[in-house]
Amino acid sequence: xVQLVESGGGLVQPGGSLKLSCAASGRIFMIYVMGWYxxxxxxxxxxxxxxxxxxxxxxxxxxxxxxTIIRDNAKNSVYLxxxxxKPEDTAVYYCNADLQSTLMARRVDYWGQGTQVTVxx
Length: 121
Known about the structure:
Layout: E1 2-7, E2 10-12, E3 18-26, E4 30-39, E5 46-52, E6 57-59, E7 67-72, E8 77-82, E9 91-100, E10 108-111, E11 115-119
Parallel strand pairs: 2-11
Antiparallel strand pairs: 1-3, 3-8, 4-5, 4-9, 5-6, 7-8, 9-10, 9-11
């Protein structure tokens, strides 16, 4: 089985920075896409940033220029460097991985348990 374990959430003041980490473990053959989504209270889950195995990245409009996604394929890990944080960035941040467990397995989406990020003075 595959597990995604996130860390790095917490409370930060507006304008501050925070770095989230996510590591995938278990039986993994290939991770195609790895990234971050977030969900604020009363809102739908939305894309924050994703990184493909070829190095392509995609960001949600609200975080462009402020957040950076970094992927380490050797460690099956992905990081989210967040800067210039705003109160509206407050949400639970979820790590996501689209992967194959073995060569013959189908691609499956896996999710982490989520980590809370709160931006407040």
